[in-house]
Amino acid sequence: xxxxxxxxxxxxxxxxxxxxxxxxxxxxxxxxxxxxxxxxxxxxxxxxxxxxxxxxxxxxxxxxxxxxxxxxxxxxxxxxxxxxxxxxxxxxxxxxxxxxxxxxxxxxxxxxxxxxxxxxxxxxxxxxxxxxxxxxxxxxxxxxxxxxxxxxxxxxxxxxxxxxxxxxxxxxxxxxxxxxxxxxxxxxxxxxxxxxxxxxxxxxxxxxxxxxxxxxxxxxxxxxxxxxxxxxxxxxxxxxxxxxxxxxxxxxxxxxxxxxxxxxxxxxxxxxxxxxxxxxxxxxxxxxxxx
Length: 291
Description:
Layout: H1 2-33, E1 67-70, H2 75-89, E2 102-103, H3 119-136, E3 144-155, E4 161-164, E5 171-176, E6 188-191, E7 227-229, E8 235-240, E9 244-247, E10 257-267
Antiparallel strand pairs: 1-8, 2-3, 3-10, 4-9, 5-8, 5-10, 6-7, 6-9
């Protein structure tokens, strides 16, 4: 009986040793074959601050980065740019869709950055785009920023631009050449990709939504279905191209809503022979091959 117990104990011990060896081999294999196992925490990834004793506190997570800069356009240059845009629009009043504003990208005017009159403005926007990337925590020196499209949008009274996003770009910008900040000429509306705070989809905007008639202080933004930005001459906005947005109707019969949109693409910078671009960043177009 004692000998049998000793054999059983030896067998259990051998099984434990073998199990531990297999676990160590699995960890080693993961480190060799799965690069994510070797990733170290990012230096900018800081844990959330812990709350002090007291009432419940809601902490905002994953905010969308909307860059805003109020430029100071020269009045004479601004007037010349507006005249140039009207000349480019010609006799057209809108896009083919009824009630839609005239947008240059659908009417052959998608390379406004090549127009000498807008060269200074494009350079200013590119400079602000690099600042935007820096404030996101990126290193512009390790990126190449490409301006792929630049087009005007002219909105007469009652005209709109429907909800959309720019899947062909990474970073988008809009510069307003008109507007007084009141929003009468049509606000730019942004939607979140998903309103997770709503808990039940549609609950915050549907009929008979169970919302507080007088929201508690500090809770107005948690269920906000959209954010509006009023145009003002010289205002520059920068935002992720994947963010849904639209232009609401121009309700000012005396004001032409005029803006310039730009789409940017991010790639790796040109690299010397033998160097490899980052895995999740497209190589520089100079290193592509058209087939």
